[in-house]
Amino acid sequence: MAEVRLRSIEKEFSGGVHAVKPCDLDINDGEFLVLVGPSGCGKSTLLRMIAGLEEPSGGTINIGSRDVTHVDPADRDIAMVFQNYALYPHKSAKENMAFALRLRKIPKAERERRIAETAKMLGIEELMNRKPGAMSGGQQQRVALGRAIVRDPACFLFDEPLSNLDAKMRNHTRSELRRLHKELQTTSVYVTHDQEEAMTLGDRVAVMKDGVMQQVGTPLQVYRAPANLFVAGFIGTPAMNLMPGEANNGRASLASGFQVSVPNSLSGPITVGVRPQHFRVATDNDQGAVELTARLVEPLGDLADVHLEAADGTTLLARLDAEWAPVEGKACSIVIDRDRHHCFDRAGQRVQ
Length: 352
Hints:
Layout: E1 4-13, E2 17-27, E3 32-36, H1 43-51, E4 58-63, E5 66-67, E6 78-81, H2 93-103, H3 108-122, H4 137-149, E7 155-159, H5 167-184, E8 187-192, H6 195-201, E9 204-209, E10 212-217, H7 219-224, H8 229-234, E11 241-248, E12 251-254, E13 259-261, E14 268-274, E15 279-281, E16 290-299, E17 303-309, E18 315-321, E19 331-336, E20 342-344
């Protein structure tokens, strides 16, 4: 195991495309860190620089005590799991898992021990003699994980490894990855565009946009205190409602009709964010309720997603208890639950 340290690391491609702008990042020994962001944000490029598959335009990469910035991938003591599994089609699962060990001249007895232990850990003993063409996508992914695990590397790198699986298998494999990490305690860097994966897998998440690191923190820190408007809108399902408003003397009037408290230091145009889960149907005792029209109600069992429209045309999404959900096309009184809202200044930075 080893920590990974990035200092002023960046990547600029020919034509002036700055895929990763200078950033610093410390990934702790034994930590599972998830790089998350939309397509094209630079997360895979950053991972590939850690792996040695892309040469940085500047900065340094350390794995443990070694500066590996210009070291060949094979000499970095890392194991990478790819989106497309990258198994040798003409080799059996066992031969795929043994291949890297043979290259490293690991004795046969030790190879057999590692492969047997890993196959048992992943529940793939029955696949050892099968070739990839005779396996399902989920089985191939477990073999690819096994091939990485048997190497006993200092660091695992995962490049969107679950994106080719169906929803049920993706959820199952995600749970298995988390279990394996707790068992192995190997430093891991995982790339995904799926913020639900990021929130459930990561000890910490690093949110990226346009090659810039927007925020690094635990999943709950990023969810409860998003650093800026981008993180607020990207992290959380359903997405946060973002409403323009005008602040003055500790209060803000929002376009939707709501009035909320804000820091006294704020004045002028601001944006207020409210998660769908933090709206509720008003009771007779509630202050500050706003009359909204339910344009669409989507039942989810005990909950319902209700698409609301304010008098000025502003649209909002509320996730409400299904028992209290309004009837489609009818007006209803809605409040923000216990003032659970976020304030962002003119520059889009969180201030509350």
